[in-house]
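Is this the right way to post structure tokens for a design question? Let me know if I should format differently. Anyway, here goes:
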């Protein structure tokens, strides 16, 4: 399963770094995220968000009809 990771970093001006990892579950995704986090960003992170990554091709939007 793919997970989207967003980390917030920076002191005075907060910035965000977003990336996708592949893992069997959330715990594995967090481990992959830790290994994938850029070394220059890691010391400044104060928040980590993990979400199941959305497949843009499978996503439906308001007003679109679904087949079924």
């Amino acid at each position: 399963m793919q997970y989207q990771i967003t980390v917030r970093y920076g002191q005075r001006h907060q910035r965000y770094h977003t990336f996708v990892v592949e893992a069997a579950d959330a715990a594995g995704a967090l481990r992959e995220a830790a290994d994938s986090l850029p070394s220059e960003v890691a010391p400044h992170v104060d928040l980590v968000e993990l979400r199941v990554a959305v497949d843009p091709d499978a996503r439906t939007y308001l007003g679109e009809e679904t087949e079924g």
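Format looks fine. Someone answered above. Worth noting: The chain is about 15% helix and 35% strand. Residues 10 and 33 are 18 Å apart (CA to CA).
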